[in-house]
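ok so for the tutorial part 2 we go from a plain amino acid sequence to predicted structure tokens. step 1 is just haveing the sequence, like this:
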Amino acid sequence: MNKKEDNEKGGVKGWIDGDETAHYTLRRISALRSTLLVPPLHRVPLRLGNVIEIFGPSPSAKTQILIQVAINCVLPKEWNGVRYGGFDHSVLFLDLDCRFDISRLSQMLTHRIMEGNAIGDCDKTLYDLCMQRFLYARCSNSFEFLQTLKSLHYRLKREKDHGVSVQLLLIDRKKLFLQSVSEAVVQDIKKLLQVHPMLVIATKSVIFGNTYSTASEEVNGCSRNVTRSPQHTQYREYMPSVWQVKVVTDDQPVISNSENSSWYVLEWLLPRIGLPDKIIVKDVRTLCVDCDLS
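step 2 — the prediction. this is what the tokens look like for a chain of 294 residues:
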């Protein structure tokens, strides 16, 4: 192995030693700053290092959104001449609710593959590849979650050594944390992103209405109180996020193709977009239809 090849593989060490080539520097910076359009959260171009929090009542299709985002990540850009538009990367899903339905993921992935296949069959080789890229960990309580976060650096490094690049971290939670736990979570995520740049998407259940208690200061100044009319929604922000997505349940079911479907409104709060999307959840898939519902 010559010096150039060793430097290409050296990464951060090569940069510290001062031997990183300009080509490698530009390629590394370009990879870190490249934007991602992640359906159904494609209203805003995202970057590695962004933290998004999806909040809404339970149920409001938050987990379904995470599954669809995961599928878009594990699918390849192109496979056997068929363009799937995926990211070709692995996903790490942290299940804090302990009710994740792997069959739902399998059904939605199979449907996506069959949509792109001209003969309407599911390519088993592609299916197996995508499922291998879906990494899963279950945390039964907040302290297990903290332990998992603290050990993630070593797991991600081990995966990277085996050629597995994790660029998406999904955190599905239903319960609120104690303030002390939340502070530790924020700090651990910040430290993790400094070493392993990833896109982080977390869910949080909230209570709509004036009965939900307010908080003036949370998590080292990262929290805010928000009251929005007409719902008078109040929530506590725990994640150190630049972006916020609100998911609101609609009371009326939608009839589509003679099938009962639940539909929800997905609205960006930060940055404020003003163009809500309609999310339709069916038995085997989640559809995001862009439409102005304001």
